[in-house]
């Protein structure tokens, strides 16, 4: 078995790792390179493999640097299956369609310039229709569900706590009667963050492929960044300015909405100061992504579920407004009232955020708050690093606005978070590969792993290939015991108990809701969900009560 690192090997974008066995080829992610012209140009280079030979893509989550070249993969011959969590599948549809649209528009813009200059036309990386075509290969599954790809391979997705649907992948591969286990961290989230659950601790692996974005940095406490953000907002509106927050449409925007919701509802002193302040989410994709979040409450953390069961929508409040049209977006920059504008993209490389920066960077009354990682070469990184002059839409802009970088909002685990997750393995993995980090970050984190855990880690620098040799003899039966163990039985019992508790609250809220005059659409929606719930509850009853005639090893694990 071999692994070839084809992306996120020299930086933090373009995640793509190829696993080759005697019979199959699997891609872990197929992401887009982001961060300046040189990085963007890498997307047009041929894949270092034949897309038609790939059997499966295992997708960790829906950020473009992890899924953004899937339509290109399909366009160049891939006809296999793409596995991801159900929430990721919903988000990927939004992300890829938007990405295809952007590539088309960028190509149109370049071709208008090329025509005037007498130069050759360019083709988009892929189109909106290419993105739509790629979606038919996606196979959504649930967290913790054991999925048999074929006779030699099984996967389980575990919650990574990074964005909605993000997953840590456990992959079991059988070769010559022995089974190796690969764990791919994807992007790991931060402990105790709102909306999402904590990253799952994995106990065993032969090989670990691990991100290292913040491998040599620590985040401030999230609560500190939240407090700092509201102070900046209050200070800015008092001087009549606008707060502009470049934010990733998926994940970060929803967390910001959640936090603003708390300020508008829970803190009476601050609530009074915010009473007339509007918060605008100016990103069609972020608007659609927020709707996807609302439809996938099954993967929220317990605190957020409790809000929902009490009848509160944590992703909405009266001063929140979503803008979709170009006209509404333009109006925000003509309106002189103090306001908060949350807009994509998070690194300021494209989208409406660049217009808002053009209209606010020069204004000393305004503030720009960065709440996520800024890759090298991006406009966001330049502003965070203190550049004083930028060019936007052909116009030179001098930076007078206050620039703030609140790293406590980061969706990536910091050095201690990464180390804590790795320390959760009860046995030393045979190999640990560090990817998805700048060179210095990866090397520093490898040294931390050595000093703190005594493990040697391999720093992946550039496209490279490694042969994986399993030093332990594990057969199929032993691997199945690990995949479906007694701890899983305990978790099943707890989940059934939790469902019973949730249904009691839902029943109470349903009785209240049914006393109101509901629209036909809402009644139909509730009825359809109830029918699905009835079907699944009966299937659960059948599965629990049927006689088990499987082999003894499996009977012990169920």
Question: Mind explaining what this structure looks like?
Answer:
The strands form four sheets. This protein has a seven-stranded mixed beta sheet with strand order 6-5-4-3-2-1-22. Strands 7-8-9-10-11-20-21 form a seven-stranded mixed beta sheet, with helices on one face. A six-stranded parallel beta sheet has the order 14-13-15-12-16-19, sandwiched between helices. The C terminus is likely disordered. Strand 20, helix 15 and strand 21 form a beta-alpha-beta unit. With 558 residues, the chain is an alpha/beta fold. Helix 4 packs antiparallel against helix 5. The chain is globular, with a radius of gyration of 24 Å.
Provide the descriptors you would attach to this structure in a database record.
seven-stranded mixed beta sheet; 19 helices; 558 residues; globular
Q: What's a concise summary of this model?
A:
This protein has 558 residues and is of the alpha/beta class.
Termini gap = 31 Å
- Name the structural class: alpha/beta
Query: Helicity, in percent?
Result: 40-55%
Strand order, main sheet: write it out: 6-5-4-3-2-1-22
Mean pLDDT: 89
Q: Largest sheet, described in full?
A: 7 strands, mixed
Low-confidence runs of at least 5 consecutive residues? 549-558
List strands and helices in order, with pairings.
Layout: E1 2-7, E2 16-20, E3 25-28, H1 37-41, E4 56-58, H2 64-67, H3 70-75, E5 81-85, H4 86-117, H5 128-134, E6 138-141, E7 147-150, E8 153-159, E9 167-175, E10 178-184, E11 207-211, H6 222-238, E12 243-246, H7 252-265, H8 268-273, E13 278-282, H9 284-295, H10 302-309, E14 320-323, H11 326-334, E15 339-343, H12 353-360, E16 367-370, H13 379-384, E17 389-392, E18 395-398, E19 402-405, H14 415-423, E20 431-435, H15 439-453, E21 458-459, E22 464-467, H16 476-483, H17 486-514, H18 520-545, H19 552-555
Parallel strand pairs: 3-4, 4-5, 5-6, 10-11, 11-20, 12-15, 12-16, 13-14, 13-15, 16-19, 20-21
Antiparallel strand pairs: 1-2, 1-22, 2-3, 7-8, 8-9, 9-10, 17-18
Helix pairs in contact: 4-5, 4-9
């Amino acid at each position: 078995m071999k692994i070839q690192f084809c992306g996120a090997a020299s930086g933090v974008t373009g995640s793509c790792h190829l696993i080759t066995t005697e019979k199959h080829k699997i891609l872990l992610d197929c992401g887009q390179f982001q961060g300046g012209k040189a990085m963007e140009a890498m997307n047009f280079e041929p894949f270092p493999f034949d897309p038609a030979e790939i059997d499966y893509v295992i997708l960790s989550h829906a950020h473009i640097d992890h899924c953004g070249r899937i339509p290109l993969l399909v366009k160049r011959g891939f006809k296999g299956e793409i596995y991801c969590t159900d929430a990721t599948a919903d988000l990927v549809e939004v992300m890829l369609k938007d990405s295809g649209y952007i590539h088309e528009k960028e190509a149109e813009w370049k071709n208008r310039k090329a025509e005037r200059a007498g130069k050759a036309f360019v083709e988009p990386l892929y189109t909106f229709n290419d993105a739509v075509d790629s979606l038919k290969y996606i196979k959504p599954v649930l967290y913790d569900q054991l999925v048999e790809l074929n006779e030699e391979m099984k996967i389980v997705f575990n919650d990574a706590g990074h964005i909605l649907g993000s997953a840590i992948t456990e992959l079991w591969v059988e070769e010559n009667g022995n089974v190796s286990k690969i764990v791919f961290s994807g992007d790991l989230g931060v402990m105790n963050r709102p909306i999402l659950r904590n990253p799952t601790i994995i106990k065993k692996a032969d090989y670990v492929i691990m991100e290292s974005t913040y491998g040599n940095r620590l985040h401030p406490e999230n609560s500190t960044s939240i407090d700092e953000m509201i102070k900046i907002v209050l200070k800015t509106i008092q001087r009549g300015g606008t707060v502009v927050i470049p934010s990733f449409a998926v994940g970060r925007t929803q967390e910001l909405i959640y936090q603003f919701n708390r300020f508008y509802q829970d803190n009476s002193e601050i609530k009074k100061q915010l009473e007339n302040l509007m918060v605008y989410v100016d990103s069609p994709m972020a608007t659609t992504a927020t709707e996807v979040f609302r439809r996938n409450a099954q993967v929220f953390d317990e605190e957020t579920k409790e809000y929902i069961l009490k009848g509160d929508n944590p992703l909405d409040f009266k001063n929140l407004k979503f803008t979709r049209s170009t006209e509404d977006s333009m109006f925000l920059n003509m309106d002189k009232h103090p306001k908060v504008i949350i807009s994509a993209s998070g690194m300021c490389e494209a989208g409406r955020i660049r217009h808002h920066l053009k209209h606010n960077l020069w204004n000393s009354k305004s503030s720009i708050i960065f709440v996520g990682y800024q890759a090298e070469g991006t406009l966001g990184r330049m502003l965070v690093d203190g550049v004083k002059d930028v060019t936007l839409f052909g116009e030179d802009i001098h930076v007078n606005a206050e620039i703030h970088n609140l790293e406590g909002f980061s969706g990536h685990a910091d050095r201690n978070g990464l180390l804590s997750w790795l320390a959760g393995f009860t046995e030393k993995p045979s190999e640990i590969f560090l990817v998805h980090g700048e060179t210095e970050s990866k090397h520093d984190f490898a040294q931390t792993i050595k000093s703190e855990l005594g493990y040697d880690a391999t720093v992946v620098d550039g496209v490279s290939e490694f042969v994986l040799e399993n030093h332990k003899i594990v057969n199929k039966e032993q691997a199945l015991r690990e995949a479906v163990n007694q701890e899983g039985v305990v978790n099943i019992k707890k989940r059934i108990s939790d469902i019973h508790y949730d249904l009691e609250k839902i029943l109470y809220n349903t009785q209240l809701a049914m006393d109101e005059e509901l629209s036909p659409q809402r009644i139909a929606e509730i009825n359809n969900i109830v029918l699905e719930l009835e079907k699944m509850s009966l299937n659960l009853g059948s599965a629990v009560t049927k006689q088990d005639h499987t082999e003894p090893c499996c009977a012990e694990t169920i």
